[in-house]
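Incident log, support desk, overnight shift.

02:14 A customer reports that sequence design results differ from what the structure should imply. Their input is reproduced verbatim below. On-call engineer (initials T.W.) acknowledged and began investigating.
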């Protein structure tokens, strides 16, 4: 597989659209309710897969519409996957799995990993435990942390030799930029893309400060504008 065609387009909050050698994979779709993503054309999104890290509204709000438009397969932890089915997504288009599980998909492998956060479905019911994902695509290894606080569980990823990591940096609901630096060291990854910041006042950050905090520790923090694409 040619890893040179792997990229990620940032769509605001924690929503990322990966291009894995021509296969579109969408993470945590939250666009129509995000005022910062008003220029993103949600109707044009045609992912083959949608991954949900957990069931909070700012991660799943546009799942049903995008899935209906695209026919995407939706992957999530068991209890969140049950909610996905209730939204009318056909059974054959739902992939439920759990911690320790790895999906073998046409574009590569995806392993579910731990995240320290809370979770519920939009209807208030139990949504299972939040999670993150590690994508193995060609020779690239990419960690999407989802919503998480700093946790020692991250050290279990140290020996994977991750190429990229998508880490929340906004604080308040997740770890902040300082804890994200510690997380980067635990997972042994120097190329970080920030997520879960600036969407709401409690998670607004000083971008220059964030870049400096990472740079001082020998790390590179990428903060692409909404709609921008980063080659991975």
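02:41 Re-run completed on a clean worker. Output:
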């Amino acid at each position: 597989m040619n890893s040179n065609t792997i990229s990620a387009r940032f769509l605001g909050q924690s929503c990322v659209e990966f291009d894995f050698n021509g296969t579109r994979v969408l993470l945590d779709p939250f666009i129509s309710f995000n005022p910062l993503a008003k220029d993103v054309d949600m109707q044009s999104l045609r992912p083959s897969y949608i991954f949900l890290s957990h069931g909070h509204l700012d991660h799943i709000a546009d799942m049903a519409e995008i899935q209906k438009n695209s026919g995407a397969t939706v992957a999530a932890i068991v209890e969140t996957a049950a909610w996905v089915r209730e939204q009318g997504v056909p059974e054959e288009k739902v992939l439920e799995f759990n911690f320790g599980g790895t999906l073998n998909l046409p574009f590569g492998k995806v392993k579910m990993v731990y995240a320290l956060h809370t979770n519920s479905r939009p209807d208030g019911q139990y949504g299972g435990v939040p999670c993150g994902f590690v994508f193995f695509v060609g020779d690239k290894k990419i960690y999407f942390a989802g919503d998480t606080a700093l946790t020692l569980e991250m050290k279990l990823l140290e020996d994977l030799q991750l190429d990229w990591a998508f880490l929340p940096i906004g604080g308040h609901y997740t770890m902040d930029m300082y804890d994200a630096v510690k997380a980067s060291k635990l997972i042994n990854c120097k190329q970080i893309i920030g997520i879960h910041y600036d969407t709401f006042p409690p998670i607004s950050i000083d971008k220059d400060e964030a870049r400096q905090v990472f740079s001082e520790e020998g790390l590179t923090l990428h903060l692409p504008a909404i709609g921008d694409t980063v080659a991975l």
